[in-house]
Amino acid sequence: MRQLQVLVDDDTREAVADLFTEEGVDYVRQEAWTDGRRGWLFSAPVPSDSIGYLLGRLDEVGLDKDQYTVIGSLESAVTPNDKALQARFASDFDPLTQPELRSKATDMSSDPTSFLSMIFLSAVIAVVGLLMDSPAIIVGSMVIAPIVGPVLTATVGAVTGDRRMLLDSIWLQASGLAVAVAGAALFSGIVYVTGFVPQQLAVTAIELIGVRLSPGVLSVTVGLAAGAAGAFGLTTKGPTSLIGVMIAAALIPAAATTGIAIVWREPRLAVGSLLLLVVTMVLINLGAFLVLVAMGYRPDESGWLLGSASRRETVAVIATAVALVLVVGTVGVGTAQQVGFDRQVTTEVNSLAQQPDYRSIDPIAVRTEYSDDTLLAQPETVTVHFAYTGSGDPPAVAAELEDRISTATGEPVTVRTRFTDYNRTSSLTQPNTSVQRLTEQ
C-alpha cells in the first residue's frame, strides 16, 4: 500500500475530488496553507500498483505534481473501498514511478568511506576463498560487497536525467574496483611473504581462479543478465539485496583474482582477469540501462547530460563514452569469434565420435586455450576429453582431430586428447560401479 498526498489549489480542487470518486479512491481532504496561500491537501491510501495510473490521471486534470506530491509506504489501510481497489490492481504490473525510482535508488547509496571499506574487506575475503578453493567463502565475500548501490544509482541517474547522481556513481564504481584490486593484492602479498601460502603455488591450477582467465560468452551473459535483473528488481516494490549478491558475484572474485595474479607474477592471468572485471562492470551497467529504457524511463529534458556542463566535464563524459564503446565493441567482436570457433570445434569432435570406427569413445568436454588472455587472441591448443568404454588402448584420434579442426576453421591448432576408461559390472542384481583410468595422448 502507498499513501498518496497531493496539494491542489481552489481551481483544481473539485476536479481532483471528482477523479478520486470516479476511481473509487477513499480520500481525506483538508485545508492547508503554504506561503500565505490557501490550498487543499488530499490524502488517500491506494495500492502500490495504482500509483502510476493515478498520477497520470491527475496530470490530465491539471495537477502540478512538482508543487507538492508525497508518496509514502503503508503497512495496511482499512477504508470503505480498499478491497475493491486492491482487487482492481492486484494483477497489474506497474513499475515504480520516476520519483519513486529515484528515491529508492538514493536510499541504496552510501558514503564513500563505508562503501570503499566494505569493498576492501570483501576483496580480502574473496582472496581467502580463492586460495583455499572454497566456494562458500567466496559467496560470503559477495554478500557483504555493496557494489549494487553505485551500479543501480548510475543507471537511474542516466535514465532520469540526474547528471550528478550518474557521475558520482561512476566515480564510486571505478574507485571501488580499484580498491578491490589493491586490497586483494595487498592481502595476497602479506600471505605470500609470510609463507602462509606456498610461494610455489600454481595459482592458475586452482579451478576457481582458472575460470577467470579472460572474458568469454558466459561472462558476457552473466554481466548483462545481472545488470538487467538488478534494474528490473529496482523498479518493483521488493528488496534488491539478493540481486546485489549476483552483481557482486560477477565482480569481486575477478578483482581478487587480479590481485592474486599480480603478487604471484602471473601477467597473463592479471591482464585477463582485469579485462574480465572491466568488461563485466560495463556490461552490468549496460544491461541495467537497457532494461530501464525498455520500461519507459526517460529524462524529463533533453541535453541534460552535457547541456550545462563545463568543458572539462564535457571532455570527461565524451572520453568515458568512447572508452566504453571501444571496450564493448572489442568484447563483442572477440566473443563472436571465440563462439564461432568453439562451435565449429564441437561440431568436428561430435562428427568424429559418430564414425563407426570410434563408437567406443564419447566426448565429455572440449576446452580451447588461446595464445594470450585477450578476446582477440588466436586459438592455440584444443583439449578434448573422451569417455572410453572399449578394451585395450583408446584409439589415437588426436592427429585426425587436429587435421579436421584446422581444415574447418582455418586455424593451425594443436589437439590434445584425454580418455577416461570406465569399467562397470555386468550383473543386473548389483549396483553399477566404475573404475576410472585417465590416459592422455
UniProtKB/TrEMBL annotation:
The chain crosses the membrane at residues 112-131, 137-159, 171-193, 213-235, 242-264, 270-294, 315-336. Pfam families: DUF389 (PF04087). Keywords: Membrane, Transmembrane, Transmembrane helix. InterPro entries: DUF389 (IPR005240). This is DUF389 domain-containing protein. It comes from Halohasta litorea. The lineage of its organism: Archaea, Methanobacteriati, Methanobacteriota, Stenosarchaea group, Halobacteria.
